[in-house]
Amino acid sequence: QVQLVESGGGSVQAGGSLRLSCAASGLSFSNHGMAWFRQAPGKEREFVAEISLGGGVAQYADSVEGRFTISRDNAQKTLYLQMNALTPEDTAVYYCNRAPGMPPAPWGQGTRVTVSS
To answer: Largest alpha-carbon pair distance within the chain?
Structure first.
């Protein structure tokens, strides 16, 4: 049974940083591109960033390019998202899952990020 558990969210002021983690189980983690998504209040879930199987290739949404860095540790089956220079527009619940284009695994509970101005 696939389980994705996100953690690391919190409340920060604009300009601050957070590092999110996603622990995967029941999934052949190293065989899948992985991604982060987010859902802001009243909005649809949106793509944030994705990373290739081995971690060598990453892509980002325009809104986070240059501020966020996605990485992974295949031995630990863990996905990360380093978020810097946070703005109130980054306030959302963040989720991890397989990269876009693949059937999603069951969604986890997400981790909430709140950025105050």
So the answer is: 40
pLDDT tens figures, 79-93? 999 999 999 999 999
Count of other CB atoms within 10 angstroms of residue 49: 24
Closest CA to 31 of 87, 98, 86: 98
Residue ranges with strand state E in the chain: 3-7, 10-13, 18-25, 34-39, 46-51, 58-60, 68-73, 78-83, 92-98, 111-116
Task: Please tell me whether residue 75 adopts helix, strand or coil conformation.
Answer: coil
pLDDT in tens, 59-109: 999 999 999 999 999 999 999 999 999 999 999 999 999 999 989 999 999
Residue with tokens 């980054």: 90
- Count CB-CB contacts under 10 A for residue 48: 23
